[in-house]
Amino acid sequence: MSNRYSPARKAAVDLLGLVLNDAKRLGEAASKLNELAPADRAAALRLAADTLRGLERADRLLKPHLRKAPAGRVMNILRLGAVELATGGAAHGVVNDCVNIAAAGKRTAGMRGLINAVLRKLAAEAPEKWQVLRVPRLPKWLRGPLVDAWGSDAVTAMEAAHFSGAPLDISAKHDPAAVAEALGGTLLPTGTIRLMDAGQVTALPGFEAGDWWVQDAAAAMPARLLGDVRGQSVLDLCAAPGGKTLQLAAAGAEVTALDLSAARLARVEENLSRTGLRAKLVEGDALEHSGQYDAVLLDAPCSATGTIRRHPDLPHIQLGEKIGALIELQAAMLAHAITLVKPGGRLVFATCSLLPDEGECHIEDMLAVHPELALLKPESAGIEATWLAPDGGLRLRPDYWSDKGGMDGFYMAALQKA
Ligand SMILES: C[S@@+](CC[C@H](N)C(=O)[O-])C[C@H]1O[C@@H](n2cnc3c(N)ncnc32)[C@H](O)[C@@H]1O
After folding, report:
1. Same domain membership, residue 240 and residue 127
2. CB under 8 Å to 224, separation ≥6 — which residues?
3. Residues 15 and 107 in one domain
4. Which residue among 169, 192, 238, 299 has the greatest number of ligand 1 atoms within 8 angstroms of its CB, and so is best to mutate?
């Protein structure tokens, strides 16, 4: 047996450790993979994401073969191996690599015999057992509040959407139908272009030319709720990396794109430059910004629990108390954002969260203390009646459009100032 292993598998095990043992976000952890070739980096991220999506199933497959769960890294090697073996990975390569990754570490080398024995058993039984295991559930810290909000059938459907992952969604600068045709994608009823099996994004036609940008179908809705913004001054208060800024600029608005993070604002600049669109960039705190605009878009920082399809690391990182602080920040931002809207102007508030405390509740609170605000009916192509929230906003969920590949979870509401 050779003692070599695929750098992508080894990096995937490292990533799992950073997420599961050190509570790092997968994206943040992946920034440490710069020494890998781009293809290995992409493969490592895919393997880590697949393992995180299937973690509950992997643990259920492994349990009968372990007297007690081994230490973190050994367990992560086993989990990665279990998921690969269950989902079509070539047994010889997967088992050899997992054993060799263990052999290369001082603390794990002593466990290579166990890894070899367990994974060889799983190679035979895992593919069949995998199919009948239940869809992985969200952890209790998140499942409890979601069941309270949406009911257990809805949460089960959301979990199925999370487990399926997400297709690649694209917003076109000008002509969605033409971009859909050029990319061989589907044009969704809301105007987003969807590719089920995209491959490398930067290699797709029209990327270099800046004809489009990647943006989930749900994430494309808040800017649309602002209606016709041609020639209007629009403030995008939490703008980076800039998907909504690009939409507003493409729709002809005079956009001011503000963000607290200089590093993230640099991504807005890159995206504007690639697409040839224009916006005024401001590095600053939304809570301190002043001015008067025809329209304001507040896409506030949130738990991002609506994006679990694409970020399977999220449920495994206890957000706990952080969510309380985010809810307070969102309320303060919303209260300030409304002061930046001219009389007669509009504000759209949005969060990519599944928790009503980060969405519906803010609008309810706001309307209770601001009689000068009116909720506008969400109007844009493709909106389905089931998406309309009882409060009058728009509630999008990952289990919607399940026949089309789902969408991110989002809440958004459009307000008008008298
Ligand atoms: C949900 S993301 C925005 C996504 C963006 N609207 C888009 O469509 O690409 C939230 C953003 O809020 C920014 N942010 C957090 N606190 C802020 C603050 N106090 N002032 C301004 N921006 C802030 C973060 O840096 C982050 O880029």
Report:
1. no
2. 190, 191, 247, 380, 381
3. yes
4. 238
Ligand 1 test: best mutation among 213, 256, 259, most atoms within 8 Å of CB? 259
Let me know if residue 310 belongs to a domain. yes
Residue 176 forms part of a structural domain: no
Decide which of 108, 132, 156 is a domain's last residue.
132
User: Can you give the pTM of this predicted structure?
Assistant: 0.95
97-152 residue pLDDT tens: 999 999 999 999 999 999 999 999 999 999 999 999 999 999 999 999 999 999 99
Q: Do 12 and 117 belong to one domain?
A: yes
- What domain count does the chain have? 2
Residue numbers of the domain that contains 85 = 7-132
How far is Cα 317 from Cα 307, in angstroms, rounded to an integer? 14
CATH number of 364's domain: 3.40.50.150
236 CA distance to ligand 1 middle (Å)? 9
Q: Helix (H, G, I), strand (E, B), or coil: what is residue 413? A: strand
Active-site residue, 361 included: no
Give 351-376 pLDDT, tens digit per residue.
Answer: 999 999 999 999 999 999 999 999 99
How far is the C-alpha of 145 from the C-alpha of 149, rounded, in Å?
6
Contacts 24+ apart (CB under 8 A), 255-258: 255/279, 255/280, 256/280, 256/282, 256/291, 256/293, 257/281, 257/282, 258/282, 258/283, 258/284, 258/286, 258/289
Q: Is 403 exposed, middle or buried (0-12, 13-18, 19+ CB in 10 A)?
A: exposed
CA distance 230 to 233: 9
The interface pTM score, or ipTM, of the predicted complex is 0.99
Quick: pLDDT tens for 275-321.
999 999 999 999 999 999 999 999 999 999 999 999 999 999 977 77
Q: Is residue 289 part of a domain?
A: yes
* Boundary of a domain, candidates 85, 117, 132: 132
Q: What is the torsion angle, in degrees rounded to the nearest 10, for the CA atoms of residue 204, residue 205, residue 209 and residue 210? A: -60
Q: Are 379 and 227 spatial neighbours (Cβ–Cβ below 8 Å)?
A: yes
